[in-house]
Amino acid sequence: MAPTAAHSCRLVVSLLISAAVLRPGLGLYTVNSVYGDTIVMPCRLEVPQTLMFGKWKYEKPDGSPVFIAFRSSTRKNVQYDEVPEYKDRLSLSENYTLSISHARISDEKRFVCMLVTEDNVFEAPTVVKVFKQPLKPEIVNKAQFLETEQLKKLGDCVSKDSYPDVNITWYRNGRTLDPSEGVITTLQRQVDPATQLSTVTSSLVYKTTKNDIKIPFTCSVTYYGPSGQKTIHSDQAFFDIYYPTEKVTIQVLPPKNAIKEGDNITLKCLGNGNPPPEEFLFYLPGQPEGIRSSNTYILTDVRRNATGDYKCSLTDEKSMIASTTITVHYLDLSLNPSGEVTKQIGDALPVTCTISSSRNATVVWLKDNTKLRSRPSFSSLQYQDAGNYVCETNLQEVEGLKKRESLTLIVEGKPQIKMTKKTDPNGLSKTITCHVEGFPKPAVQWTITGSGSVINQTEESPYINGRYYSKIIISPEENVTLTCTAENQLERTVNSLNVSANENKEKVNDQAKLIVGIVVGLLLAALVAGVVYWLYMKKSK
Ligand SMILES: *[C@@H]1O[C@H](CO)[C@@H](O)[C@H](O)[C@H]1NC(C)=O
Ligand SMILES: *[C@@H]1O[C@H](CO)[C@@H](O)[C@H](O)[C@H]1NC(C)=O
Ligand SMILES: *[C@@H]1O[C@H](CO)[C@@H](O)[C@H](O)[C@H]1NC(C)=O
Ligand SMILES: *[C@@H]1O[C@H](CO)[C@@H](O)[C@H](O)[C@H]1NC(C)=O
Ligand SMILES: *[C@@H]1O[C@H](CO)[C@@H](O)[C@H](O)[C@H]1NC(C)=O
Ligand SMILES: *[C@@H]1O[C@H](CO)[C@@H](O)[C@H](O)[C@H]1NC(C)=O
Ligand SMILES: *[C@@H]1O[C@H](CO)[C@@H](O)[C@H](O)[C@H]1NC(C)=O
Ligand SMILES: *[C@@H]1O[C@H](CO)[C@@H](O)[C@H](O)[C@H]1NC(C)=O
User: Fold this and answer.
1) What is the end-to-end Cα distance of the chain in Å, rounded?
2) Using a 6 Å cutoff on CB, does residue 224 contact ligand 2?
3) Domain that holds residue 314
């Protein structure tokens, strides 16, 4: 047992020496492993021929060792020490490579492989580093909006579950936000006591400008992995940028040069800020006090007196103002006389159509829907002057602005009669015409003396311009007097004409006798011819 005791004593001594001599230092062999993976630590010692056993330990911060695994070279068995932290996680292979499964942050230690012979102890330390890649960073607690010229918290960039420490960087439009540009970032780290993983939050306080409209903000997390420094970027975040109105504009609907009396005008005021102003003051012509309204102000049924300058301003900043001039177009037309006018033939009738309007307007005259060359004016009315007159005008610039008035002129006259007589060239008949003039249309009646009968076998011409004629054709056998009576509401006029009997009555009788004579002669000749023929036939039999 002596050699064993001596051996044990030597072993303990050498263990103590090794603990004292092999302090952590530079150039130590390091195993980089990923959180959750298996840490594999080769022993890194040549296995001596006389090896009795191998052992693994780690060193506590104060330097004291904690043995965790043992493998006997001779008996080929493995033992793991009762260390709660490593329970069921260790595996020591035949070549003394130690594997630790489910790597944790707390595995970052200095482990030592010890190979023990009868007279020596060989040691090789290995430093374990564990890395945990953070999750993709996220921008949270985003500001609903940012305001120009105001320092405001934009949001938090959160990087979760990392080890070792990470850095967070903010970017505007892909470029690093420089802290000198009025940017303030504050970093906060939180370590989960169970996992020792960090959650790092960087808050960005930022003074925005209008240049940030639609510009993406991102953040990135820079971390160390087993193979060096790496970076993960967050998704883009956009912010609604609020900025004050720098210009006010006023709009008029309908378009300014088309406003006419009776229209409803909508004044619309716009500010170029974000959000746009919701309220404005509207100033009507000649009124220094503004009327508070939404961004529109409606004037209904405007009259010409609404012409003038209109303005609108912000409610809080009255110097931010816009103005516009509105002209309400109008067109007045007055026709004198107008409506239905009844005049007597030969009367004089002055007609005037006066226009007053916001622009020069031209007048068009129509008579019975036909355009007249010049304006009508009557010094002595004729029947053909009667009709429907329209005086019409419109403003070309303003759609829908037109006016018209009409005059229905009636020219009345008592019936006037003129009779004519025409004898047929052969003298057999006579055409008597009664020319009648008057309005309303006179009714014509013929009477013939002697018999005193009323003739209705007449031919009438159309009634045009207050005039027409009635015609009869007679063949009188005695001297007669024809009377033409024309009557309308105003008067009854009578005219008569003496017609002598047909002078060539005898001539007609002679001609008839001659014709009868010829016919009788022909008949006699035919009779003679017939008798001769009969006699001849009888004789030949
Ligand atoms: C030790 O053994 C393990 C398997 O048991 C093997 O994967 C590893 O490569 C070996 N290491 C050395 C240094 O021989
Ligand atoms: C974080 O920033 C510091 C200082 O700039 C630097 O020394 C360190 O290496 C950075 N860490 C990472 C993970 O980039
Ligand atoms: C103007 O508005 C009133 C209601 O406010 C409406 O009755 C009228 O028809 C409108 N006039 C025109 C020309 O649109
Ligand atoms: C404009 O004239 C109308 C009558 O045509 C009148 O009722 C209205 O009050 C006037 N408006 C202004 C602003 O003078
Ligand atoms: C309108 O009338 C005025 C005079 O009444 C005249 O000086 C002006 O030239 C006219 N304008 C047009 C466009 O006809
Ligand atoms: C006039 O006409 C009516 C019917 O058309 C007739 O009955 C009458 O006999 C006529 N008179 C003369 C005189 O021809
Ligand atoms: C008819 O009138 C003519 C003159 O116009 C006259 O010569 C004639 O004697 C008259 N005949 C009768 C029957 O009256
Ligand atoms: C027509 O004849 C009558 C007599 O038959 C006479 O009184 C009258 O004056 C004559 N009229 C005209 C227009 O010649």
Assistant:
1) 209
2) yes
3) 249-326
